[in-house]
Amino acid sequence: MRLMMLAAAMMATPSFAAAAQTGATGGQVGATSHADASSRVAAAPHRFVFADRAPAGSTAAPRSRPYADGYGFEPGGGTLFSVAVPPGNYRVTLTFGGKAATETTVKAESRRLMLNAVRVPAGRTVTRDIIVNVRDASLAPPPANAPGGDRVRLKPREIGSFSWDDKLTLEFLGDLPKAVTIAPVAVPTIFLLGDSTVTDQGAEPAASWGQMLPVFLKPDIAVANHAESGETLKSFITELRFAKVLESVKPGDVALIQFGHNDQKANWPQTYAAAATTYRDYLRTYIAELRRRGVTPILVTSPERRMWTGDRIKPTLVDYAAAVRAVGAEETVPVIDLNAATITFYEALGPARAPLAFNDGGKDATHHDNYGAWVLARIVAGGLAGQPVGRHLRDDLAPFDPAHPPAPESFRLAPSSAHDSTRPDGN
Protein backbone atom coordinates (compact mmCIF):
# COMPACT_ATOMS: atom_id res chain seq x y z
CA MET A 1 0.00 0.00 0.00
CA ARG A 2 2.81 2.40 0.89
CA LEU A 3 4.32 1.99 -2.58
CA MET A 4 0.96 2.65 -4.25
CA MET A 5 0.44 5.82 -2.22
CA LEU A 6 3.97 6.98 -3.00
CA ALA A 7 3.28 6.55 -6.70
CA ALA A 8 0.08 8.56 -6.42
CA ALA A 9 1.77 11.30 -4.45
CA MET A 10 4.71 11.61 -6.86
CA MET A 11 2.35 12.12 -9.80
CA ALA A 12 0.31 14.79 -8.08
CA THR A 13 2.19 18.05 -8.66
CA PRO A 14 -0.33 20.68 -9.83
CA SER A 15 0.34 22.48 -13.10
CA PHE A 16 -0.24 26.08 -12.07
CA ALA A 17 0.77 27.36 -15.50
CA ALA A 18 -2.05 25.34 -17.01
CA ALA A 19 -4.47 26.71 -14.43
CA ALA A 20 -3.48 30.25 -15.32
CA GLN A 21 -3.97 29.52 -19.01
CA THR A 22 -7.38 27.88 -18.81
CA GLY A 23 -8.97 28.71 -15.48
CA ALA A 24 -8.53 25.05 -14.70
CA THR A 25 -8.41 23.23 -11.40
CA GLY A 26 -4.70 22.54 -11.72
CA GLY A 27 -4.91 19.79 -14.36
CA GLN A 28 -2.32 19.61 -17.08
CA VAL A 29 -3.23 20.91 -20.52
CA GLY A 30 -2.17 18.31 -23.05
CA ALA A 31 -2.26 18.34 -26.82
CA THR A 32 -5.62 17.53 -28.36
CA SER A 33 -6.78 16.53 -31.80
CA HIS A 34 -8.37 19.97 -32.11
CA ALA A 35 -5.53 22.07 -30.71
CA ASP A 36 -6.20 25.16 -32.81
CA ALA A 37 -9.92 25.23 -32.00
CA SER A 38 -9.20 24.53 -28.33
CA SER A 39 -6.77 27.41 -27.97
CA ARG A 40 -9.17 29.75 -29.72
CA VAL A 41 -12.03 28.95 -27.36
CA ALA A 42 -9.83 28.92 -24.25
CA ALA A 43 -8.15 32.22 -25.02
CA ALA A 44 -11.33 34.32 -24.67
CA PRO A 45 -15.10 33.93 -24.38
CA HIS A 46 -16.54 32.46 -27.56
CA ARG A 47 -20.19 32.80 -28.52
CA PHE A 48 -22.07 30.30 -30.67
CA VAL A 49 -25.45 31.17 -32.18
CA PHE A 50 -27.70 28.25 -33.08
CA ALA A 51 -28.77 29.61 -36.44
CA ASP A 52 -27.61 29.66 -40.05
CA ARG A 53 -26.13 33.12 -39.59
CA ALA A 54 -24.49 34.88 -36.65
CA PRO A 55 -23.64 38.51 -35.92
CA ALA A 56 -20.06 39.71 -35.91
CA GLY A 57 -18.07 38.26 -33.05
CA SER A 58 -20.18 35.06 -32.93
CA THR A 59 -20.04 31.74 -34.74
CA ALA A 60 -23.08 30.26 -36.48
CA ALA A 61 -23.81 26.69 -35.38
CA PRO A 62 -27.06 25.50 -36.99
CA ARG A 63 -28.49 22.25 -35.70
CA SER A 64 -27.56 20.60 -38.98
CA ARG A 65 -23.83 21.23 -38.45
CA PRO A 66 -21.99 18.03 -37.51
CA TYR A 67 -19.06 18.23 -35.13
CA ALA A 68 -15.92 19.20 -37.06
CA ASP A 69 -13.02 21.63 -36.70
CA GLY A 70 -13.59 22.00 -32.98
CA TYR A 71 -17.34 22.56 -32.69
CA GLY A 72 -20.74 21.27 -33.78
CA PHE A 73 -23.42 18.72 -33.01
CA GLU A 74 -22.65 15.11 -32.20
CA PRO A 75 -24.35 12.27 -34.12
CA GLY A 76 -27.77 11.22 -32.90
CA GLY A 77 -30.39 13.87 -33.53
CA GLY A 78 -28.84 17.27 -32.83
CA THR A 79 -29.21 17.40 -29.04
CA LEU A 80 -25.50 17.16 -28.16
CA PHE A 81 -23.35 20.21 -28.92
CA SER A 82 -19.58 19.98 -28.40
CA VAL A 83 -16.72 22.48 -28.40
CA ALA A 84 -13.05 21.48 -28.27
CA VAL A 85 -11.41 22.91 -25.14
CA PRO A 86 -8.44 22.06 -22.91
CA PRO A 87 -9.12 20.57 -19.46
CA GLY A 88 -10.41 23.04 -16.89
CA ASN A 89 -13.52 24.76 -15.57
CA TYR A 90 -15.73 26.77 -17.93
CA ARG A 91 -18.50 29.27 -17.44
CA VAL A 92 -21.23 28.53 -19.95
CA THR A 93 -23.78 31.30 -20.47
CA LEU A 94 -26.97 30.15 -22.21
CA THR A 95 -29.60 32.37 -23.77
CA PHE A 96 -33.10 30.88 -23.90
CA GLY A 97 -36.36 32.06 -25.44
CA GLY A 98 -37.64 33.60 -28.64
CA LYS A 99 -40.87 34.28 -30.46
CA ALA A 100 -42.53 31.14 -29.08
CA ALA A 101 -42.54 29.82 -25.51
CA THR A 102 -39.65 27.45 -24.81
CA GLU A 103 -38.68 24.80 -22.28
CA THR A 104 -35.16 23.37 -22.08
CA THR A 105 -33.27 20.98 -19.83
CA VAL A 106 -29.47 21.16 -20.01
CA LYS A 107 -27.03 18.38 -19.16
CA ALA A 108 -23.25 18.45 -19.59
CA GLU A 109 -20.60 15.90 -20.47
CA SER A 110 -22.05 12.49 -19.46
CA ARG A 111 -25.56 13.51 -18.38
CA ARG A 112 -24.62 15.87 -15.53
CA LEU A 113 -27.83 17.73 -14.75
CA MET A 114 -27.13 21.46 -14.95
CA LEU A 115 -30.53 23.11 -15.55
CA ASN A 116 -33.92 21.42 -15.29
CA ALA A 117 -36.87 22.61 -17.37
CA VAL A 118 -36.00 26.26 -17.95
CA ARG A 119 -39.29 27.78 -19.15
CA VAL A 120 -39.44 31.09 -21.04
CA PRO A 121 -42.72 32.76 -22.10
CA ALA A 122 -43.23 33.73 -25.73
CA GLY A 123 -41.49 36.91 -26.79
CA ARG A 124 -38.94 36.91 -23.97
CA THR A 125 -35.37 35.75 -23.44
CA VAL A 126 -33.45 34.81 -20.31
CA THR A 127 -29.80 33.97 -19.66
CA ARG A 128 -28.50 31.32 -17.28
CA ASP A 129 -24.94 30.46 -16.27
CA ILE A 130 -23.59 27.02 -15.49
CA ILE A 131 -20.08 25.82 -14.61
CA VAL A 132 -18.79 22.76 -16.47
CA ASN A 133 -15.65 20.82 -15.58
CA VAL A 134 -13.76 19.24 -18.48
CA ARG A 135 -10.96 16.71 -18.10
CA ASP A 136 -8.98 14.15 -20.04
CA ALA A 137 -7.10 11.04 -18.93
CA SER A 138 -3.59 12.44 -19.21
CA LEU A 139 -1.23 12.66 -16.23
CA ALA A 140 2.07 14.41 -15.84
CA PRO A 141 4.65 11.66 -16.51
CA PRO A 142 6.39 10.47 -13.36
CA PRO A 143 10.10 11.18 -12.91
CA ALA A 144 12.58 8.71 -14.35
CA ASN A 145 12.53 5.35 -12.56
CA ALA A 146 9.50 6.37 -10.47
CA PRO A 147 6.34 4.25 -10.41
CA GLY A 148 3.11 5.46 -11.97
CA GLY A 149 2.04 6.34 -15.49
CA ASP A 150 1.04 9.15 -17.79
CA ARG A 151 -2.66 8.26 -18.16
CA VAL A 152 -5.57 7.13 -16.02
CA ARG A 153 -6.26 3.44 -16.64
CA LEU A 154 -9.74 3.78 -18.11
CA LYS A 155 -12.17 0.90 -18.46
CA PRO A 156 -13.49 -0.11 -21.89
CA ARG A 157 -16.83 1.59 -21.23
CA GLU A 158 -15.01 4.88 -20.59
CA ILE A 159 -13.14 4.94 -23.89
CA GLY A 160 -14.78 7.58 -26.05
CA SER A 161 -16.88 8.85 -23.15
CA PHE A 162 -17.75 12.54 -23.01
CA SER A 163 -16.29 12.45 -19.48
CA TRP A 164 -12.73 11.85 -20.68
CA ASP A 165 -12.37 13.55 -24.06
CA ASP A 166 -11.04 16.88 -25.36
CA LYS A 167 -14.44 18.55 -25.63
CA LEU A 168 -17.04 20.36 -23.57
CA THR A 169 -20.35 18.70 -24.46
CA LEU A 170 -23.81 20.08 -23.73
CA GLU A 171 -27.04 18.11 -24.13
CA PHE A 172 -30.17 20.14 -24.87
CA LEU A 173 -33.49 18.42 -24.19
CA GLY A 174 -36.53 20.26 -25.41
CA ASP A 175 -36.02 23.55 -27.23
CA LEU A 176 -32.58 24.57 -28.41
CA PRO A 177 -31.21 27.75 -26.77
CA LYS A 178 -30.64 30.79 -28.94
CA ALA A 179 -26.95 30.99 -28.12
CA VAL A 180 -24.18 29.78 -25.81
CA THR A 181 -21.01 31.55 -24.66
CA ILE A 182 -18.10 29.50 -23.29
CA ALA A 183 -15.20 30.96 -21.32
CA PRO A 184 -12.57 29.55 -18.91
CA VAL A 185 -13.17 30.48 -15.29
CA ALA A 186 -11.30 30.17 -12.00
CA VAL A 187 -13.72 28.82 -9.39
CA PRO A 188 -13.49 26.28 -6.54
CA THR A 189 -14.24 22.68 -7.41
CA ILE A 190 -16.03 19.83 -5.66
CA PHE A 191 -14.27 16.56 -6.56
CA LEU A 192 -16.30 13.37 -6.29
CA LEU A 193 -14.44 10.12 -5.53
CA GLY A 194 -16.52 6.97 -5.47
CA ASP A 195 -18.21 4.07 -7.22
CA SER A 196 -21.20 3.37 -9.47
CA THR A 197 -23.67 5.03 -7.12
CA VAL A 198 -21.73 8.32 -7.53
CA THR A 199 -20.40 8.31 -11.10
CA ASP A 200 -21.82 10.03 -14.16
CA GLN A 201 -23.79 7.15 -15.67
CA GLY A 202 -23.60 7.79 -19.39
CA ALA A 203 -26.93 6.36 -20.52
CA GLU A 204 -30.53 5.96 -19.44
CA PRO A 205 -32.08 4.48 -17.37
CA ALA A 206 -29.30 4.27 -14.75
CA ALA A 207 -28.30 7.43 -12.87
CA SER A 208 -26.22 8.33 -9.84
CA TRP A 209 -26.32 11.13 -7.32
CA GLY A 210 -23.04 12.66 -8.45
CA GLN A 211 -24.43 13.63 -11.84
CA MET A 212 -27.46 15.29 -10.24
CA LEU A 213 -25.52 17.38 -7.71
CA PRO A 214 -24.67 20.33 -10.03
CA VAL A 215 -28.33 21.33 -10.39
CA PHE A 216 -28.42 22.25 -6.68
CA LEU A 217 -25.38 24.56 -6.86
CA LYS A 218 -24.89 28.18 -7.83
CA PRO A 219 -22.84 28.91 -10.95
CA ASP A 220 -19.81 29.79 -8.84
CA ILE A 221 -18.41 26.31 -8.21
CA ALA A 222 -17.62 23.29 -10.40
CA VAL A 223 -18.28 19.59 -9.88
CA ALA A 224 -15.58 17.20 -11.12
CA ASN A 225 -17.01 13.70 -10.91
CA HIS A 226 -14.10 11.24 -10.92
CA ALA A 227 -16.17 8.36 -9.52
CA GLU A 228 -16.50 5.23 -11.65
CA SER A 229 -18.53 2.03 -11.58
CA GLY A 230 -16.92 -0.93 -9.82
CA GLU A 231 -14.33 1.15 -7.96
CA THR A 232 -12.91 0.57 -4.49
CA LEU A 233 -10.54 2.61 -2.36
CA LYS A 234 -7.71 0.35 -3.57
CA SER A 235 -8.56 0.23 -7.28
CA PHE A 236 -9.07 4.00 -7.36
CA ILE A 237 -5.36 4.23 -6.53
CA THR A 238 -4.01 1.45 -8.74
CA GLU A 239 -5.91 2.77 -11.79
CA LEU A 240 -4.31 6.20 -11.15
CA ARG A 241 -7.68 7.87 -10.62
CA PHE A 242 -6.59 9.19 -7.25
CA ALA A 243 -3.38 10.45 -8.87
CA LYS A 244 -5.52 12.35 -11.38
CA VAL A 245 -7.54 13.93 -8.58
CA LEU A 246 -4.40 14.88 -6.64
CA GLU A 247 -2.85 16.39 -9.77
CA SER A 248 -6.02 18.41 -10.47
CA VAL A 249 -6.94 19.84 -7.06
CA LYS A 250 -5.96 23.23 -5.71
CA PRO A 251 -6.18 24.76 -2.23
CA GLY A 252 -9.75 25.64 -1.34
CA ASP A 253 -11.32 22.75 -3.24
CA VAL A 254 -13.55 20.13 -1.63
CA ALA A 255 -13.52 16.34 -2.06
CA LEU A 256 -16.49 14.08 -1.32
CA ILE A 257 -15.38 10.48 -0.74
CA GLN A 258 -17.85 7.58 -0.90
CA PHE A 259 -16.74 3.95 -1.20
CA GLY A 260 -17.98 0.73 0.38
CA HIS A 261 -20.23 -1.18 -2.01
CA ASN A 262 -17.32 -2.92 -3.69
CA ASP A 263 -14.75 -2.69 -0.89
CA GLN A 264 -16.86 -5.12 1.15
CA LYS A 265 -16.71 -7.88 -1.50
CA ALA A 266 -14.44 -10.57 -0.07
CA ASN A 267 -14.78 -12.40 -3.40
CA TRP A 268 -12.72 -9.56 -4.90
CA PRO A 269 -9.55 -10.39 -2.89
CA GLN A 270 -7.29 -7.86 -4.64
CA THR A 271 -9.46 -4.93 -3.56
CA TYR A 272 -11.32 -6.23 -0.50
CA ALA A 273 -10.90 -3.95 2.51
CA ALA A 274 -12.22 -5.08 5.90
CA ALA A 275 -14.44 -2.45 7.52
CA ALA A 276 -12.71 -2.66 10.90
CA THR A 277 -9.15 -2.30 9.61
CA THR A 278 -7.95 -1.77 6.02
CA TYR A 279 -10.97 0.24 4.88
CA ARG A 280 -10.42 2.75 7.67
CA ASP A 281 -6.69 2.98 6.94
CA TYR A 282 -7.33 3.77 3.29
CA LEU A 283 -9.85 6.47 4.23
CA ARG A 284 -7.25 8.06 6.50
CA THR A 285 -4.71 8.00 3.66
CA TYR A 286 -7.12 9.73 1.29
CA ILE A 287 -7.85 12.35 3.94
CA ALA A 288 -4.15 12.98 4.58
CA GLU A 289 -3.24 13.30 0.89
CA LEU A 290 -6.08 15.74 0.23
CA ARG A 291 -5.40 17.85 3.31
CA ARG A 292 -1.73 18.05 2.34
CA ARG A 293 -2.89 19.91 -0.78
CA GLY A 294 -5.23 22.28 1.01
CA VAL A 295 -8.39 20.38 0.05
CA THR A 296 -11.29 19.88 2.46
CA PRO A 297 -12.36 16.21 2.60
CA ILE A 298 -15.95 15.22 3.36
CA LEU A 299 -16.89 11.57 3.88
CA VAL A 300 -20.15 10.12 2.60
CA THR A 301 -21.57 6.79 3.79
CA SER A 302 -22.70 4.46 1.02
CA PRO A 303 -26.37 4.44 -0.01
CA GLU A 304 -28.09 1.29 1.16
CA ARG A 305 -29.28 -1.47 -1.15
CA ARG A 306 -33.01 -2.09 -1.48
CA MET A 307 -33.26 -5.29 0.53
CA TRP A 308 -36.32 -5.85 2.69
CA THR A 309 -37.29 -7.66 5.84
CA GLY A 310 -41.01 -7.10 5.87
CA ASP A 311 -41.53 -3.37 5.44
CA ARG A 312 -38.10 -2.46 6.86
CA ILE A 313 -34.82 -2.20 4.97
CA LYS A 314 -32.31 -4.96 5.73
CA PRO A 315 -28.93 -3.19 6.10
CA THR A 316 -26.07 -4.61 4.03
CA LEU A 317 -23.45 -1.90 4.61
CA VAL A 318 -23.80 -1.24 8.34
CA ASP A 319 -20.15 -2.04 9.18
CA TYR A 320 -18.84 0.25 6.45
CA ALA A 321 -21.15 3.11 7.36
CA ALA A 322 -20.01 2.76 10.98
CA ALA A 323 -16.37 2.80 9.84
CA VAL A 324 -16.91 6.05 7.90
CA ARG A 325 -18.55 7.71 10.90
CA ALA A 326 -15.72 6.53 13.18
CA VAL A 327 -12.96 7.81 10.88
CA GLY A 328 -14.81 11.09 10.45
CA ALA A 329 -14.95 11.55 14.22
CA GLU A 330 -11.29 10.57 14.71
CA GLU A 331 -10.01 12.82 11.90
CA THR A 332 -12.48 15.69 12.48
CA VAL A 333 -13.86 15.26 8.98
CA PRO A 334 -17.52 16.04 8.19
CA VAL A 335 -19.68 13.00 7.40
CA ILE A 336 -22.82 12.98 5.28
CA ASP A 337 -24.74 9.90 6.40
CA LEU A 338 -26.31 8.92 3.10
CA ASN A 339 -26.65 5.33 4.31
CA ALA A 340 -29.07 6.25 7.09
CA ALA A 341 -30.89 8.76 4.90
CA THR A 342 -31.50 6.25 2.10
CA ILE A 343 -32.95 3.74 4.53
CA THR A 344 -35.37 6.45 5.64
CA PHE A 345 -36.11 7.32 2.00
CA TYR A 346 -36.83 3.75 0.88
CA GLU A 347 -38.97 2.98 3.90
CA ALA A 348 -40.95 6.19 3.34
CA LEU A 349 -41.85 4.90 -0.13
CA GLY A 350 -42.43 1.35 1.10
CA PRO A 351 -41.73 -1.98 -0.61
CA ALA A 352 -44.30 -1.42 -3.37
CA ARG A 353 -43.15 2.06 -4.49
CA ALA A 354 -39.42 2.04 -3.65
CA PRO A 355 -38.58 0.25 -6.95
CA LEU A 356 -39.66 3.47 -8.69
CA ALA A 357 -36.37 4.99 -7.46
CA PHE A 358 -34.20 2.27 -9.01
CA ASN A 359 -32.60 1.35 -12.30
CA ASP A 360 -34.00 -1.20 -14.74
CA GLY A 361 -37.59 -0.71 -13.67
CA GLY A 362 -36.69 -1.63 -10.10
CA LYS A 363 -35.05 -4.96 -10.99
CA ASP A 364 -31.72 -3.44 -9.95
CA ALA A 365 -31.69 -3.10 -6.16
CA THR A 366 -28.40 -1.18 -6.01
CA HIS A 367 -28.39 1.52 -8.69
CA HIS A 368 -30.88 4.30 -9.11
CA ASP A 369 -32.88 5.91 -11.88
CA ASN A 370 -33.19 9.67 -12.44
CA TYR A 371 -35.71 10.09 -9.63
CA GLY A 372 -33.73 8.11 -7.07
CA ALA A 373 -30.45 9.78 -8.03
CA TRP A 374 -32.06 13.23 -7.77
CA VAL A 375 -33.33 12.48 -4.25
CA LEU A 376 -29.93 11.18 -3.13
CA ALA A 377 -28.21 14.26 -4.56
CA ARG A 378 -30.71 16.45 -2.73
CA ILE A 379 -29.81 14.64 0.50
CA VAL A 380 -26.10 15.20 -0.16
CA ALA A 381 -26.75 18.87 -0.90
CA GLY A 382 -28.53 19.09 2.45
CA GLY A 383 -25.46 17.59 4.09
CA LEU A 384 -23.30 20.29 2.54
CA ALA A 385 -25.52 23.05 3.91
CA GLY A 386 -23.82 23.09 7.29
CA GLN A 387 -20.29 23.24 5.83
CA PRO A 388 -18.36 26.22 4.41
CA VAL A 389 -19.00 24.84 0.91
CA GLY A 390 -22.71 25.27 1.65
CA ARG A 391 -22.48 28.92 0.58
CA HIS A 392 -22.40 27.63 -2.99
CA LEU A 393 -25.83 25.97 -2.72
CA ARG A 394 -28.70 27.62 -4.55
CA ASP A 395 -30.55 30.15 -2.43
CA ASP A 396 -33.97 28.73 -3.33
CA LEU A 397 -33.40 25.25 -1.87
CA ALA A 398 -36.05 24.48 0.71
CA PRO A 399 -35.35 22.15 3.65
CA PHE A 400 -35.47 18.51 2.60
CA ASP A 401 -36.60 15.51 4.65
CA PRO A 402 -35.92 12.02 3.20
CA ALA A 403 -38.86 10.76 5.28
CA HIS A 404 -41.11 12.91 3.06
CA PRO A 405 -39.67 12.62 -0.47
CA PRO A 406 -41.43 13.97 -3.55
CA ALA A 407 -43.75 11.44 -5.17
CA PRO A 408 -41.89 9.40 -7.79
CA GLU A 409 -45.05 9.30 -9.91
CA SER A 410 -44.95 13.09 -10.35
CA PHE A 411 -41.18 13.47 -10.83
CA ARG A 412 -40.23 14.81 -14.26
CA LEU A 413 -36.80 14.98 -15.84
CA ALA A 414 -36.27 14.88 -19.60
CA PRO A 415 -34.47 11.62 -20.45
CA SER A 416 -31.20 11.76 -22.34
CA SER A 417 -30.87 10.40 -25.86
CA ALA A 418 -28.40 7.66 -24.87
CA HIS A 419 -29.89 4.38 -23.64
CA ASP A 420 -28.11 1.23 -22.47
CA SER A 421 -29.64 -1.69 -20.59
CA THR A 422 -26.26 -2.94 -19.35
CA ARG A 423 -26.05 -2.95 -15.58
CA PRO A 424 -23.30 -0.72 -14.12
CA ASP A 425 -20.10 -2.48 -13.05
CA GLY A 426 -20.13 -3.75 -9.50
CA ASN A 427 -23.80 -4.71 -9.56
Question: Would you mind describing this structure in some detail?
Answer:
The chain has 427 residues and is α/β, with parallel strands linked by helices. Helix content is 24%, strand content 22%. The chain has one domain: SGNH hydrolase (Rossmann fold). It contains ten helices and 17 strands. The strands form four sheets. The chain has a five-stranded mixed sheet. Helix 1 runs parallel beside helix 6 (241-248) and helix 7 packs across helix 8.
The best one-word shape is: globular
Under CATH at level 1, the class stands as Alpha Beta
Count of distinct strands: 17
Q: Superfamily at the CATH H level? A: SGNH hydrolase
CATH topology annotation: Rossmann fold
| CATH arch. level architecture | 3-Layer(aba) Sandwich
- Point out poorly predicted stretches: 1-40
Count helical runs: 10
